[in-house]
Amino acid sequence: MKTPSSVPRRGVLLGGTAAAVSGILAVGSRPAMAASPKKQGSPASAKMKFGQDGKFKIVQFNDTQDGPRTDRRTLELMDAVLDSEKPGFVVINGDVINGSPANATEVKQAINNVVMPMESRKIPWALTFGNHDEDSLSKGTKMSEAKILDFIRGYDHNVNTKEDSTFGSSNSQLLIASSRSSKPAFGVWLLDSGRYAPETIGGQDFEGLKSYDWIRPEQIDWYRETSRATEVRHGKVQSLMFFHIPLWEHHHMWYGSQFSSNDADHAKAVKKHGIVGVKNEDVYVGAFNSGLFTALQERGDVRGAYCGHDHINTFMGDYYGIELGYGPGTGFGTYGLGGAEEHSLRGARVFELDEKQEGVYTGTRVLFAKDYGIDMDPQDQPIAEPLPLPQR
């Protein structure tokens, strides 16, 4: 396991949370403890379908995180993965763009660059929001997550559901119909894991804690109620869940312990939880434990919960019957391992489904840009011009 002495860009962000984040919070975030009326969940209708062979693939891209002139290799990697895997669905799991856009058009260009690989192939796709997708608000772009959601829902092959009063802007249930009927054979849950913790709660700051946001109780209520309603209508539909910021349990799984973080504990955890992949930086969790994992245990319909956020972590394992894991960072325009190895972990994660198999979900694997022969030079390689925006 390699642990870099410093991680570019993230270290700058976390070095002074109140100073760095306060301006963004003022214009971009919802109130930290905001509540909305609890709604009775109802199941989604299936917008995707298993192939005639009963199989289906999901691709997870993560942290494409760039501006209107996306690094060309990010797009080359996405193109290569889509052409080799031919998935039925793609999720960009948060931090789709960075804070460099100077106006609303540049925000749309940055997003358009990384969704066109799916749009041009007519592949259904969706995104979750990460902690950086609203960073350009501080420059006056006025492109909040809600406005970004409105924009992306205008694409022909986007399957994000419209915003409701539940906290966050990318909470969605997506169902995949059986090849033999309209009955859902598998599902996908998307959650908005928020951005940053507020400066204070109850007069106390967050010094000494990870300073990120967390999945809120009302989101967990929405998942629980929608899951129950889906079971009533269709039976229990096995699913995968995607959100950007990892859970505390991602950390606990790696170390096999809640209150220690040492290599001896990790060695035991590898055997206990079947951990594969690498951890090259901290697990940057939300400031509070959301409680989502216990809700997943209660409902028993989520086979795996996958995040991004920590670009150079790729590990996954079985934590008490639920897979917890990372998709590797996809974007070449943001931090990596550093030095000559800067881009060596750029990649994507693939999930295999087969409705003829018990449980439907049959496994996951990671694909890396270096294995596609993509240039690994640490120097940035932005495209000459943003891809053309769709005519509407």
From TrEMBL:
Recorded superkingdom: Bacteria
Short name of one Pfam family: Metallophos
Family matches, as CDD domains: MPP_Dcr2
InterPro entries membership: Calcineurin-like_PHP, Metallo-depent_PP-like, TAT_signal
Domain Calcineurin-like phosphoesterase: 56-312
Name of the protein in its database record: Calcineurin-like phosphoesterase domain-containing protein
Organism: Paeniglutamicibacter sulfureus
